[in-house]
Amino acid sequence: MFIEKAYTKNFDFIKYLPIPLVLLGLMALNYVVIVVMNIDVEDVLRQEIAKKGTNQVFIETLMPMIILLIALLVWVKYVNKQSITSLTTARDKVDWSRVWFSFAVWGGITAGFIGLAYVTNPDNFVLNFNLVPFATLAIIAMIMVPMQTSFEEYLFRGYLMQGIGIVTKSRLIPLITTSLLFGVMHIANPEIEKIGYILLFYYIGTGLFLGIITLMDDGIELALGFHAANNLISALLVTSDWTAFQTDSVLKDVSEPSVGFDIFVPLLILYPILLFIFSRKYGWSGWKSRLTGRIKLTQE
To answer: If DSSP codes are grouped into helix, strand and coil, which group holds residue 298?
Structure first.
């Protein structure tokens, strides 16, 4: 089972703490500074883009996550003495077909909904395509976005899911905890400032969905594919002035954001459909024991 793969006789939860504490501390500090100093995140991004260009700001936005990904993997391998494979999956090796299947399914759905939104409400978009900046964006995004999303998956659905699960001997506690932390991680995003804290329900719900597919599938491969598709396809196809990713994408959404379709359709309709697709394809069973059962540890 996936959580148990991280357990050995040398397991020490204290060694798990530095990276998540540093990350959560930095996020908390960033949020406090924004609130106390009443910083308009959207305006700051607009000024940075005006000075440096969209692609440069995009790189600078992604780079901290990439550095943290490298730091996390090095820490796991050399401090926790755990293989990257066991951080990724309970299988003997990483199943890349799962990554690509999840990427293709969610990427197709995401692209389809963007296309549908453009066709049904063309006044909400302007054509933003410019060949050279877009080609540059595509190269940057295809390299850096999967690394950024992989950091979040390795941290929340891998590292913390396993560590909290081993300490609590529970599957439900790390599922809930990592989902909440994943949502809170996005609290300083400009989308929250623009739409409101209700958007946290979307992030927490997405974290819950990713946690469920991780526990049911005994690995983070499906979560890796989903998250990469979600961020990459969005970065390439549509941008707006109030999102964390502002890019030289094909379209620019100029509509006024509102709570509704973009939040509740994924949570209430699309994610359950994906759970059904994945469960049928990979033959999932024993939902209760896999999501809420106790963990039995055997020393190696």
So the answer is: coil
Q: Which two tokens stand for residue 41?
A: 């995140």
In the predicted structure, residue 1 carries a pLDDT above the cut 80: yes
Give the model confidence (pLDDT) of 229-265 as tens digits.
Answer: 999 999 999 988 778 778 999 999 988 777 777 788 9
**How far apart, in whole angstroms, are the C-alpha atoms of residue 111 and residue 229?**
10
Question: What's the predicted TM-score (pTM) here?
Answer: 0.93
- Main-chain phi, psi angles of 27, to 5 degrees: -65, -45
CA–CA distance, 151 with 74 (Å, rounded to integer): 12
Across the chain, how many H-helices and E-strands are there?
Answer: 14, 3
**3-state SS, residue 80:** coil
Question: Which residue, 168, 153, 186, is CA-closest to 27?
Answer: 186
Contact 40, 34 (CB under 8 A): no
- Spell out the domain ranges in the chain: 3-292
d(Cα 245, Cα 159) in Å, to the nearest integer? Answer: 25
Residue 70 phi, psi dihedral angles, 5° rounding: -60, -45
Sign of CA dihedral 229, 235, 240, 244: positive
